[in-house]
Design goal:
The chain is α+β, with helices and mostly antiparallel strands and about 400 residues long. Among the domains are: about 190 residues, no CATH class; about 90 residues, Nuclear Transport Factor 2, Chain: A. It has 13 helices and eight strands. It has an eight-stranded antiparallel β-sheet, covered by helices on one side. Helix 1 runs antiparallel to helix 4. It is elongated.
């Protein structure tokens, strides 16, 4: 009986040590990644808060510049760009149009791409605000890149994918270790006591960890699913090493504005919000926009039309939820619900952001618990009552010694 108890205690201690170190190492890094995730969830709101005053415009004319005219401005600003994107946000109609161009194509495994984003007054053609992908250029774009790849390109994306698996493992070990407390916490039977730092860290870890467990399994599990292709040989065979693409500006035979109007005729439900022109041999022009009808819950639906440079339609896409395949539905749910909480509206955004920071908080309280437990056993081993020889070492039961 004593041998079984000792064996169980040793297993629990090892499990607790693994859980603690995983949480500590990952928590520090995911604190930064979670900040980036929050910036994505609230991107529109944060962009308006940080840069709204810089990109707000007054109506200085009766008619806006055409997309063709805006494209010529972009061509002048970014003559060597791999693509040009012209967009506006229908949610903020008083803001300037944004023009984006790629500055540099990443060719190395841990190289991050760089681009510029200018805001143009659509009535005058004046560039009123310039941003880029650096920290000082546009902190939201910088954080987005930090979240997706730690700003380390494709190699960084692989690291984030691996870390997502490690966080899931940390959560699972926490689930096993705290299995006796889960239902008590969910039924509000566990109260956080602030008698001292030991009690507070233990109770906070239980309560926050339990409530964050399910949401974080969704967040990090869905994150790994989005990076799954990077762990398949077929992806690397097809995409790596990247081929240096020569910039080839297409000879557009039709008006870009006519393509926008054609898109609206093909997909009446779509509100066109951006047009992109790829500068390579594909000569692809894409018109993209959101639709008025929600896809499911509060998740937005979208559509796009791809044209060749002569104005002929290459592909048109717009589906209702009922028309989605099972895989398409899961992919959409994976991002708009499981990973970002967007489908639940403002409530989902707030909850997902809060629980997204939970690993960082848990890493602190969890490491405090592990350090406390380590010190406990060091004192126990030095106690005269435990010095009985190797066969008679007394070990406290796991259920009493951990917390």
């Amino acid at each position: 009986m004593s041998s079984d108890m000792n064996s169980k205690a040793n297993i629990n201690r090892k499990l607790f040590t693994i859980h603690s170190w995983l949480g500590l190492v990952l928590g520090i890094i995911y604190c930064l990644i979670s900040i980036g995730g929050a910036s994505i969830v609230f991107y529109g709101e944060l962009n308006e808060f940080l840069y709204g005053d810089n990109i707000r415009i007054e109506k200085l004319g009766k008619k806006k510049l055409s997309y063709d005219q805006l494209y010529q401005i972009a061509r002048k600003e970014y003559p060597n760009s791999m693509f040009i994107n012209i967009a506006y946000d229908p949610n903020y109609p008083k803001n300037a149009y944004s023009i984006t161009g790629m500055e540099e194509q990443p060719m190395n495994l841990f190289e991050n791409g760089r681009f510029h984003n200018d805001y143009v007054n659509p009535y005058t053609g004046e560039i009123i605000f310039r941003t880029d992908s650096s920290f000082t250029g546009n902190i939201l774009v910088w954080l987005d890149s930090l979240h997706a790849s730690l700003r380390l390109g494709t190699g960084g994306a692989v690291i984030v994918g691996v870390m997502s698996v490690m966080v899931v493992l940390s959560l699972i070990t926490g689930l096993i270790f705290y299995r006796k407390f889960i239902f008590k916490v969910l039924l509000f039977r566990v109260k956080v006591k602030f008698k001292n730092w030991r009690t507070a860290s233990s109770d906070l870890h239980r309560v926050i960890g339990t409530w964050a467990l399910i949401v974080n399994l969704l967040i990090f599990g869905s994150g790994f699913y989005m990076y799954y292709a990077l762990f398949t040989p077929s992806w690397w065979k097809e995409n790596w090493p990247p081929k240096h693409a020569e910039v080839v500006v297409p000879k557009i035979a039709v008006s870009l504005d006519s393509l926008v109007e054609k898109s609206k005729a093909l997909i009446p439900e779509m509100i066109p919000s951006s047009i992109s022109i790829v500068h390579d041999t594909s000569e692809l022009i894409s018109v993209y926009g959101m639709t008025k009808q929600k896809l499911y819950l509060d998740a937005d639906n979208y559509g796009y039309v791809e044209f060749k440079s002569d104005g002929t339609v290459k592909e048109s896409y717009h589906k209702q939820w009922a028309d989605f395949t099972g895989v398409e539905k899961f992919d959409n749910i994976n991002f708009t619900l499981l990973h970002t909480g967007w489908a639940l509206g403002l409530t989902g955004k707030i909850l997902w952001t809060f629980f997204g920071f939970a690993p960082a908080i848990l890493s602190i309280t969890g490491f405090a618990l592990w350090w406390r437990k380590k010190k406990f056993f060091q004192r126990k081993s030095k106690s005269p009552s435990t010095q009985r020889g190797p066969q008679e070492t007394k070990v406290a039961p796991a259920s009493k010694s951990i917390l």
